[in-house]
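Cross-posted from the bioinformatics board.
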Amino acid sequence: MIDLALLLLLALGFAAAAGFIRVCERLVAREPAPRSDGP
Amino acid sequence: MTWQGWFLIIFFVVAVATMTRPLGGYIARIVDGNRPGPRSLIVLESGIYRLAGVDPTREQSWVGYALSLLCFHLIGIVALYGLQRLQHLLPFNPQKLAAVGPDLALNTAVSFATNTSWQSYAGETTLSYLSQMAGITVQSFLSGATGIAVAIVLLRGFARVSARTVGNFWVDLTRITLYLLLPICVVASLLLVSQGVPQTLKAYVEATTLEGDRQLLAYGPVASQEVIKLLSGDGGGFFNVNSAHPFENPTALTGLIELLLIFMIGAALTNTFGRMVGDERQGWALFTAMAVLFLAGVTVVYGGEAGRNPVFSPMGIDQAAGPDQAGGNMEGKEVRFGPAQSALFAMVSTASSDGAVDAMHDSFMPLSGAVLMANMKIGEVIFGGPGSGLFGMLLLVIVAVFVAGLMVGRTPEYLGKKIEADEIKMAMLALLITPAVILGAAAIAVVVPDGLSGPANDGPHGFSEILYAYTSAGATNGSAFAGLSANSAFYNLTLAAAMFAGRFLVIVPVLCLAGTLAAKRRVPPSAGTLPTHGPQFIALLLGTIIIFGGLTFLPALVVGPVAEHLAMPR
């Protein structure tokens, strides 16, 4: 029983990491096109 | 300090520098698609792809690469967990060791799959030979190869122009394991065996001591695990006392070989970086910054350990160097290693992500302990573990060029790639996750009863023991300060969570950063381009590292080792 609970916890951790991929993807996708090249 | 001690340190640094260029070139050839191995390895590589259904010519986006990496390590952790839980039913268990408890098994599985190798167990009394060989050793190879692969992806990000793909995880993993890690391991394992490191599947032997007592001598397949533990940045020893054990590290020569194995790939990757971006000077600039930090750190640690421990002075203990003893603070150190080798090993082990030990860091002087913690806290960027050191250093480089850009009011760029909001977001995410994990977890541990029951000491030293444990886990180092009873459900689970977050939640933004960089066009250098291969940039980078590390971790270090230093008798 405890094995199942720990493996479920592990699966949740990986699901969170996979969700973090999506977060990063959105963070970079939201950025508008490069603006100024500066002086 | 003695001239012999400094000779050892300087010889080691020169040896690492000498190996950097040839090994860096070899790694560049491996990841570039060349097949430098013998025909048998090439056939094996093709066979693995066929068996796994991998098309080696098909590259992945950074998202595909990250998902492959996560799936692979999920399977690895479950496999290692199962192996430990069922080891009493499986072969190669001559000592008939029982199944590993669930929380310890999870901690160990996460530890080795994340390249941390934190060990809440004693290997020789906990794990069967099968768990050591098919579990620990295999994960050492695979987690080390993963770290190198992530670094290579980031290098491709800098090297490629307007690209949508960053490589193929399965191909990188296979090639790095087959052509880099395995050949070095075979040669170095044989060298260690020649020096007396055991490699056997026989049961432990019972010996009669000089006093006539009976003693069980543990041994086993040590040499094969020893080399990859050092080469991969894993650091998890076959024995509880790690590289202080005479079966893991029997001679002066094995001591030197082990030190070189820890640093060789991390250092070589700086040259691989230079080659991949078409300017080796860029790699040498990073190498120089790493070497400066290393020499500064080793000077403090060696100076601290070679000097007198003021706590021992009133006891009348002779701590002076002389013909019969190395002198210095010898508590927790092997007599045959002395302060110089112990200080060097501790520095190398914490500057990289390796975490192997040949002396007990808990017994180091407080400021030495602070340096060891600082090495890990800044991201183990001083040569670092295989891959993780270089990508950690490149994150700090991005911050440094961003700061430089702010100072002159120009869009920052590095190696012809403009560093814009996307890159800074990902670099900062990757850089801030580790401190958040370390400081957050340590803060919880110092207020809950389960956390407070762990350290063997009260006061600042007890705090250092807790802080070191979460630093080691969050930075995926794996070395132990010792003095902390970490084999409890609380520590096993919280340290596992810290290792998991410190590895995978850092890798994801690094891969994202690689993806955004690879997609960019290259900007030709102009009069306003900041040169990134000269002493000015190296100084800027060093300043960035010190300020970033200081702002993030100095308060915690003041509560622990600095307070302990100030409280020591004069």
